[in-house]
Amino acid sequence: MHNFEFVKPGTVAEAAAALTGEEAQALGGGQTLLPTMKQRLAAPETLVSLNGIAEMKGVCSNDAGEICVGGGTPHAVVSRETASSYPALSKLAGMIGDPAVRNRGTIGGSLANNDPAACYPAGVLGSGATIVTNTREIAADDYFQGMFTTALEEGEILTEVRFPVPEKADWQKFLQPASRFSLVGVFVAKFADGVRVAVTGASEDGVFRWSEAEAALSADFSAGAIAGLSVPADGMISDLHGTGAYRASLVKTLTSRAVSGA
Amino acid sequence: MPKDGGIGASSKRREDVRFLTGRGRYTDDINLNNQTYAWFLRSEVAHGTINAIDTSAAEAMDGVVKVFTARDFEGVGGVPCGWQVTDRFGNPMKEPKHPVLAEGKVRHVGDPIAVVVAESEAQARDAAEAIAVDITELPAVMDMKAALADGATKVHDDLDDNLCYDWGFVEENREAVDAAIAEAAHVTTLELTNNRLVANPMEPRVAVGDFNPGTEDYTLYTTSQNPHVIRLLMGAFVLGIPEHKLRVIAPDVGGGFGSKIYHYAEEAFVTFASAQVRRPVKWTSTRSEAFISDAHGRDHVTKIELAMDADHNFTALRCDTYANMGAYLSTFAPSIPTWLHGTLLAGNYRTPLIYTNVKAVFTTTTPVDAYRGAGRPEATFQLERVIDKAARELGVDPAELRRKNFIKPEEFPYQTPVAVVYDTGNYHATLDKGLEMAGVDTFEARCAESAANGKLRGLGIAHFIEACGIAPSNLVGQLGARAGLYESATVRVNATGSISVMTGSHSHGQGHETAFPQVVAEMLGIDEGMVEVVHGDTANTPMGMGTYGSRSIAVGGSAMVRATEKIINKAKKIAAHLLEASEADIELADGQFSVAGTDKSVAWGDVTLAAYVPHNYPLEDIEPGLEETAFYDPSNFTYPSGAYICEVEVDPDTGKVEVLGFTAADDFGNVINPMIVEGQVHGGVAQGIGQALLENCAYDENGQLLSGSYMDYTMPRADDLPMFEVDHSCITPCTHNPLGVKGCGEAGAIGSPPAVVNAVIDALHRGGHTHVTHIDMPLTPSRVWAAINGQ
Prior knowledge:
CATH class of the largest domain in chain A: Alpha Beta
Distance between the termini of chain B: 56 Å
Radius of gyration of chain A: 18 Å
Shape of chain B: globular
CATH topology of the largest domain in chain A: Uridine Diphospho-n-acetylenolpyruvylglucosamine Reductase, domain 3
Low-confidence stretches of chain A: none
Largest sheet of chain B: 7 strands, mixed
CATH class of the largest domain in chain B: Alpha Beta
Strand order of the largest sheet of chain B: 3-5-1-13-10-11-12
Strand order of the largest sheet of chain A: 4-5-8-6-7
Number of strands of chain A: 12
Structural class of chain B: alpha+beta
Order of helices and strands of chain A: EHEHEEEHHHHHEEHEEEEEHH
CATH architecture of the largest domain in chain A: 2-Layer Sandwich
Shape of chain A: globular
CATH architecture of the largest domain in chain B: 2-Layer Sandwich
Largest sheet of chain A: 5 strands, antiparallel
Oligomer: heterodimer
Helix content of chain B: 25-40%
Strand content of chain B: 15-25%
Number of strands of chain B: 30
Number of helices of chain B: 19
């Protein structure tokens, strides 16, 4: 690890100011950034820790009935706080990494990084959540823009995520056996106005919505409704842990299980 | 009643207290005054010509003491190979130079090019990044068969090709085996890969070199399974330091699994460099470095053919194997696919004719050497897989086919057609025991339960033999070993009766500090707490060969028995003098020497005190003191065997395999500490299940390691494993060592992979996927799904 300056502001405004510095980088729970720095693959000059910002922590609900999760909230807290209000989201957060990861890693860090195998992007996209930053609100459908790419501008801070609560939902995660990230993960959420199906781990373009399944499930929310569908292997990730065809098959299997589990 | 001490007691591992409370003293805990730190700059390409190395910027950086390249090692030897295999035409294997630092070419990702020695590790690493290396990349040499094709890119330019050796065994049987296969009523053929593995001990390698300018003595602290072997190889072949000027210390070592047997370039580097910079030099491997610089294991590509007559008697076995050596020959690499593999191909069976051909191949990958089991897992896997396939083809019960061909209990000692003579065994007993423990009679009901849940359940059987207790020196010498394989022990009885046992064996997790005292205490009838084991330092232990090949209790333990027998003989002389009796009448029991048939006795402590305070002592007959050394060279290998039974459930939609049950019924001969033996089996089986389902050291076609971290290399975790059912009550004691022990360290890793794969294939067949005859390890969900779906 190379030397760096470390600042830990107490407010979002102070953090935003600190991030305007040369080669400054926001630090959430550090579950990706710190290993990357240790391998000398990243060398920011200033780390701006978001962990001292009280206004970015915790889970509450708003007048619209949405669940509002502060960007600096660790996975373990999300899992605990949403256990009765949004069980599928609680399940997703509770299956990330191991207890150490879940107590350090934050929802904001995961979403800002947008790893193609991360879990939260599927939960956020599948819920049709709203990403709130220090400058604006971004719909989930506009936020995810491909592997490790998001709508966030340089220095923009993800302060909150607002989840509308569906009638039914489930999260199905098939583990990449070594990293225990999602080899494929599928989040299915049934709302009054339709069903959303979001898939992580599978596509070379990062998290995506399986629109054919959404249409079929919106008409008939049962596993049988997607029996005749298939996911093309083109554009799916192919690596040591699974071919594109395998991942495509898992998308359907897991979607079916999520519908049954919802 | 279980015993509460001595042989057969499950004494708690006394060393675990310090390991589990953070009080172990590992090599990385050793920090010497005025120490410097080494950082290795390693090749990022698999193969290339080094045009130039510019170290000038690095040398100017803060804290840099010296930057080393191959130029600094002119006149220094290469890292030696400890075993010379003779090919089937009578020629010695090809043995290219393995320089400490790359000379002119790099041959695998991780090949060290230069080393910075600096005041801190961070400074050394910073400076290493400033070294400019101009490399012209060459094509990687990855596929073994392609590497042997005419015109293939050569890993070593001074060799004719990439072939290390072409070995045949038993060469005289070659034509007879071909004929038997041609005439057979049935031949089952299987082509398979034994996947490359990374050992991944919990403690990465560390080495600290310390040259003393005053005495011109060298000390090397290193994470080794065999400090005397390192002293011999590095002192004699690399650096030219005589034994009396070189001390090698391997303190607490956090696991080895074979990977810490070998003499590595980093050890030679820190020792050499400490004399150059006149300060201690320390190197601590990162986990990332361990993946590319620790010797890998396995990596065989094999075709095996099993011939049977109309009654399903095995008539001949033929196998052709390509064995990956990697870029250089690691210490024992050539012996693994040959003498530790070919000699095990009889398995537990009466197959009369066996021939194996092994082509060892150089590739642009990390060197490959022994890993837990070493050659024997490869032999067992192919044999137990082809037998299972044969049973399926013939429509017979795989257990019955094995029983029919087992060597019978009354046939021991049994001369196999592959040189070795099994002294004892009872394979019918272990198989029966294993099947009973595994609840095979109620398997069908469990199968139906799984089917009701949309899952496929399968049962897999494997039976293994291994040759361990390595090894008779005269025999291995004929086979090409460049070392003897005896073991040593000094039993030093102190004046008050406590005992220090100095052993050449080395404990790096095996529990020697507990098990060895149990033997000595049992022989003397004293409390085992009075006995302490000293190991790991060439300065205070007799020359020994270290720990690998499940040899420590069988060979090291036997040396300890011989030394203790000498102690007893001398102590009896002292006791006879003290008791004014004839030596022939002295009996030793429960720590008391008594005169047979009388109530006259003298305690152990009185005799030991007399030895060191010889006021009343037979000085005209014997010397004072009570310390004896023995070297034990075994007359044969030992042959543990066992039945391993695995029960799995496969999810046909995802290909995920869950191991639901695992039974190991072993014959280890006599057992010193059942709890430690059970732990060894647990660890071995976990590694075997790891190989079968999870672990895969994979390279891409350019020689880049795809599984170079735990993000991609799947270590087995607790939730990947079932509760194990372990038994070692089927005992046929070894006939040629004094303890009747066979060794248990590697068994689990040898017997389990074929049991797991056989179980998965069984599950798929029960589920109607009868087109699947084999899946190469590891049986990841992706591979199982692909096999089910014909992809």
